[in-house]
Amino acid sequence: QVQLAESGGGSVQAGGSLTVSCGASGFAFSTYYMGWVRQAPAKGLEWVGTIFSDGLSTYYAPSLKGRFTISRAENTLYLQMNSLKTEDTAMYYCAKTEYCGLSKITPSPFAAWGQGTQVTVSS
Q1: Is the pLDDT confidence value at 93 over 90?
Q2: What percent of the chain has pLDDT over 90?
Q3: Can you tell me the distance from the alpha carbon of 4 to that of 35, in angstroms, rounded to the nearest whole number?
Q4: Closest CA to 57 of 24, 115, 101
Q5: Among 55, 54, 46, 43, which residue's Cα sits nearest to residue 110?
């Protein structure tokens, strides 16, 4: 059974940095594309970015590229967020695709999500 558990959310001032993590279990984590989505208050889900199975190749929402970095190690997915803005306030969800292997298929929709971790950025 796929299990994704986010942690590390919290409150931070605008301009600050925060890294959230996601512990994964129940599947061969290293072989699947993984990523993050977020949902701001009263808004829909927004894709943040995806990391491929090679653990190095990533692609991001254009509006976030350069500030957010996704990485992976062992059975953990990370999202490093720099230069945070108040509009980055959201629930952040770790997500798993159904794509695996060394090819890089885009787009690669997500099929499973965790419970989320709240990130609040204050001015």
Answers
A1: yes
A2: 88
A3: 11
A4: 101
A5: 46
d(CA 24, CA 93): 12
C-alpha dihedral, 70 to 20 to 17 to 40, nearest 10°: 90
Res 47: pLDDT? 96
**Could you identify the residue written with the tokens 């299990």?**
3
Q: Is the pLDDT assigned to residue 103 strictly greater than 90?
A: no
> Do 96 and 1 meet the contact criterion of CB atoms below 8 Å apart?
no
Phi and psi, residue 102, nearest 5°: -90, -5
State yes or no: pLDDT of 85 exceeds 90: yes
